[in-house]
Design brief:
The complex is a heterotrimer of chains A (127), B (134) and C (110).
Chain A lengths: L3 E5 L6 H4 L3 H11 L4 E5 L16 E3 L2 E3 L5 H10 L4 E4 H6 L12 E3 L4 H5 L4 E4 L1
Parallel strand pairs in A: 1-2, 1-7, 2-5, 5-6
Antiparallel strand pairs in A: 3-4
Chain B lengths: L2 E6 L7 H15 L3 E6 L23 H4 L4 H14 L4 E6 H7 L9 E3 L1 H10 L2 E5 L3
Parallel strand pairs in B: 1-2, 1-5, 2-3, 3-4
Helix pairs in contact in B: 1-3
Chain C lengths: L2 E6 L7 H15 L3 E6 L14 H7 L4 E6 H6 L12 E3 L1 H9 L3 E5 L1
Parallel strand pairs in C: 1-2, 1-5, 2-3, 3-4
Helix pairs in contact in C: 1-2
Classes of the chains: A alpha/beta (127), B alpha/beta (134), C alpha/beta (110).
Amino acid sequence: MGKIINVIDTAYRATLEEQDDTSLWFTRACKNAGADMDILLTGNAVNYVVRNQNPHALYLGKGAIPHPSKFQDDLSDFIKSGGRLYFLNNDLEERGIESKEIIEGAQALDRTKMASFLDTYENIWHW
Amino acid sequence: MSSLNVLIMDPPYESANTATVFRMIDSTLRKGHDVTVFAYEGAAALSFKPQKGHPNPVKGTSEEEEKHPLSKDFVEGLFATARENGREFKWINCGLCVDERGVGDWVEGPVRGGPQHFVEAFNNCDKTLVIATR
Amino acid sequence: MSKYLFIESRDPFETNDVRDCYHLIKDLSDSGHDVVLFLVQNGVFAARKKCKNSELDELLKKENIHVYADDYSIDERGINKESVYSQINVTGMDTLVDFTMEDGRKPIWH
């Protein structure tokens, strides 16, 4: 069925109560199940490549969120598993994120190259 | 004849996506295609059996007059449409999503599954459409 | 050359992401690809001729971009058919299904 690019555009959506990003989690689960998947981060999701994300444990009354996910670690694991991780450089720059802040292995993509980039994939899933 | 695999994420009563995807699946089945739905995250509640209609105090209508739409009825209806048209229709509820929401009591038809079942459907279907929540 | 189907469900004034999607569609068209843009839900707010949306104007000038709008979404919002761009075909869900299932066309929900 061909290669899949997961374009993840929305960040930090219910990520504390889930202790995961559900789009990212699903991508990794599908990859583990044999799907040929890469990731392109756009919009505010480009912040997921920032190395210093540090969500603390939260205690809410008698409840707790003890292990909020560190997305830089999830993405590094994705790269180690053979997946390719891209981010839209324009969206990164608009948010004032500097290249020195980001994790190793994430590859920059310029918006002007997006059409030709997407055309290398048979399936485009927008999250 | 071909087949469509759809992932949906929105919970009932929160997004215009829900009505659109029900319309789209209904049309797909009527046009002679098979359909597999993977109900992920909030969408796992679409087939929740205890859903119940209610009156509308603002409009002054009783529960019977209001006939409040229930997404579980739409799910059942799609199974009926598939049967009438001789098409294969699968509705897979993400098991982990069901558990964390406590919505495991479903109308007849849906089955429990996980991402591996979505990948299996992706491999077996002609087209896959992901409709994420926002 | 590839074939794409973009299903745009959002108002162009709701988020920059919608305009970015229009730009991407134009880039795909400029590269010679065939693109269907299907407006649905609040995406149909772009369909009015008087909508201040120059990005869509550009798309409508292209021969290999075909724009459709969901008839129910149009009616639901009280948009007169006469006020819709003449290049936009107001059509039903069956058309969307046909494009989705068309051999070789890549569907993307946006």
